[in-house]
Amino acid sequence: MAACTVYSTQSLRTNISIPTSSSKTHVGFNQKQVVFYTKSNNKRLNNTSRYLITCKASDSQTIVIGLAADSGCGKSTFMRRLTSVFGGNPDSNTLISDTTTVICLDDYHSLDRTGRKEKGVTALDPRANDFDLMYEQVKAIKDGISVQKPIYNHVTGLLDPPELIKPPKILVIEGLHPMYDSRVRDLLDFSIYLDISNEVKFAWKIQRDMAERGHSLESIKASIEARKPDFEAYIDPQKQYADAVIEVLPTQLIPDDNEGKILRVRLIQKEGVKYFSPVYLFDEGSTISWIPCGRKLTCSYPGIKFFYGPESYKGNEVSVVEMDGQFDRLDELIYVESHLSNLSSKFYGEVTQQMLKHADFPGSNNGTGLFQTIVGLKIRDLFEQIVASRAETPVGATKA
Amino acid sequence: MFGSGRMMIVRPIRAAPEQESNKVEESIKSAPEMCADDPVSGECVAVWDEVEELSAATSHVRDRKKESDPLENYCKDNLETDKYKTYDN
Question: What is the DSSP code string of B38-69?
Answer without folding.
Answer: -TTSHHHHHHHHHHHHHHHHHHHHHHHHHHT-
